[in-house]
Design brief:
- The chain is 62% helix and 8% strand.
- The protein has eight helices and four strands.
- A hairpin with a 5-residue loop joins strand 2 and strand 3.
- Helix 5 runs antiparallel to helix 7.
- It is elongated.
Length: 201
């Protein structure tokens, strides 16, 4: 029987994926209404934008902190992309949970250097980077589309919410994958291709 933590991991990963899908579908149903985008004031416009409502066209309102903007008349693609980071994070979390499940089982069996573990950790690193770096790029594209549609591209620029944490975690996981790969015995190196064909790992 699988340990409770392994089952819980798969359950939470599935919930994350379902939440991301539902969140995007909910946004798509709001196409034509406001879409929330993250922006930065363009050079030379920050002082002007401190006055709420200055030069704001009909259907656009500015929040108090100046970064989130709600643009009316959104398209389906804008709504989907504006929430695409949540969807991508959920899907990557589900895929990562499945990989972690297999990794944990080998660790609990006392086989941390089992054939295929290094590749699984490498895939985990890729998932972290895709979710953490590629995910925030989707709302940025939505912001760029909305700014061009509302003729605000000269007033704002699309914001990209970059964090160095996901790339750092990806590098750590990559180093761990190299360590696991280097820790395999010659016998494991010889049997790895045969095990990959028979187990599908």
């Amino acid at each position: 029987m699988k340990p409770t933590v392994v089952n819980l991991m798969r359950y939470l990963g599935g919930l994350a994926a379902l939440w991301g899908i539902a969140y995007v579908i909910n946004g798509i149903t709001q196409a034509g209404a406001y879409v929330r985008i993250q922006v930065n004031p363009a050079a030379g416009t920050a002082d002007q934008l401190r006055l709420s409502g200055v030069n704001m066209p009909y259907g656009v309102k500015l929040d108090t902190d100046q970064l989130p903007v709600h643009a009316w008349g959104s398209t389906v693609l804008e709504q989907a992309l504006s929430r695409g980071d949540v969807l991508l994070a959920g899907l990557c979390a589900f895929a990562g949970a499945l990989l972690l499940e297999r990794l944990l089982m080998t660790f609990l069996q006392g086989r941390p250097f089992a054939p295929g573990n290094a590749a699984k950790v490498g895939r985990l690193a890729a998932l972290v980077v895709v979710a953490g770096v590629g995910g925030p790029l989707l709302p940025t594209i939505a912001a760029w589309m909305a700014l061009n549609r509302t003729a605000l591209a000269g007033t704002f620029t699309a914001a990209y919410d970059f964090s160095p944490v996901p790339p750092a975690i990806g590098l750590i996981l990559t180093a761990l994958a190299v360590f696991i790969r280097s820790g395999r015995t010659p016998e494991e190196e010889l049997t790895a291709p045969r095990l990959s064909r028979t187990t599908g790992s």
